[in-house]
Amino acid sequence: MSNIGSIVYGGISLEHKTDNLVKKTLIYLAGNFSSKIFGFIIIPIYVTYLSASQLGEYDFQQTIAGLLQPVIALAIWEAVLRFGLKAEKKELNQIISTAAFISCGTLSIAFIIMLGMYFNIYGTNIISFLYVLMIIFMPIITLLGYMTRATRNTAVFAFSGVISSFINLLGILVFVIWKDFGLMGMLLSTIAANICNALSLFLGSKLYNYISFRNFSRKQAIILLTYSMPLILNLVFGWFTSSFSRFYINTTIGSTENGIYAFAMKFSTIILQISSIVNMTMIEDAVETAGAENWTKRFEKNIVDVTNIFFRAAFIFLPLIGIYFHTVTNNDFSKSLVLVPILMYSTLMNNASTLIGNVFSVFNKTSRIFLTTLLSGFVNILGAVALGHLFGLWGIIISQILGSSVLFFTRYFYGRSINRYEIDWKKMIINSLLFLLVSLIVLTRNLWIQFIVFFISSSSVCFLYKNWIKYEINQIRNKLNR
Q: What kind of membrane protein is this, topologically (predicted)?
């Protein structure tokens, strides 16, 4: 049986690295726990204080931000992490300074161009300005976060999530609930949170000590951009796999339908955000242990263990979400329950694809990973247009599942040409069948059955991870007794 306990104890000759991996994961999870709770807290706010149309428009702008951020900052954060983790002080200063000055230039140009475009599309008003500001902050936060991780300030990176969540929640309470600003209130709270997040990352990790004109290096710029440029296309086409559906729904079917889709997607986003934290440590571990003995076995084990964890988390979340939907009175949002399992499975497949895709970054094959994302994005676009025309919202969701599946399988088979790894297909199939079973039960909308499934799932997961739970409890006791 594969469990998280094996992550703690399964070092294979890399025990110290494994302990560091778990500690780093727990730090990220602890620091970002508030933002995940925040995700749960604001879901009822969407139902009460925003219309489906307003949520659809807000989600649409965030979707645009996701598309543009790798283009605006040239995805240079990927190179910062890849080369920064193993760099000594002088080289690290050069990496961060070079990336910072390149990004300042591209961000300034992008801000001016986008401001002109948005004023032309939406009119010269405060909403247009807030849209641009929200979009421009996304690559800033990402870059500062990667720089913080590259300088090994993991606690600062984690704590910045706590600050951001608190400010965001405070902003929603003031601008959305009290002032009833609606869409503008959501934008103001998001921007305020991003400003505080950026400041906490920059000041907390003391990035100002690394950045200097003297440390700018043309040679380093070529190295960073050579690595990151292929990843721009990879991230853009990754957007076509994960986010094109929302863009297409909003522009062809309507913002109300996109709001319904976005509401259903919020539940999957919680798993997506948590998995992104774990994936941060997975890529760092893969890079830092590259070339070590039994690296391939360790890589395989991380894929299996993490994938199992998130499938089992989904078995708990699904009935819990079904129970929550009994409190949703908004008819538009209420009917979105049927979309939740499909979107969640797509998220799980994308997470597994990310874990497998780490092999491309470790062996500097970033141009190859783009090909897998390109094919997946093409399938999603073609499917959304064709199936969306025939079946509407359902056709678009089916195309998203197809795109996620193509991404997973192409990365697996293409990745094996770089390093001969394996994954446990038996467990993958069993997890998928169990997910289907739990989903069908939850969709009966029977409250008592949903409670029973939640109890069974929770008890089963606690039993599977009992050794790890005991281990962590003992660790806490030992620290308290000191």
A: Multi-pass membrane protein
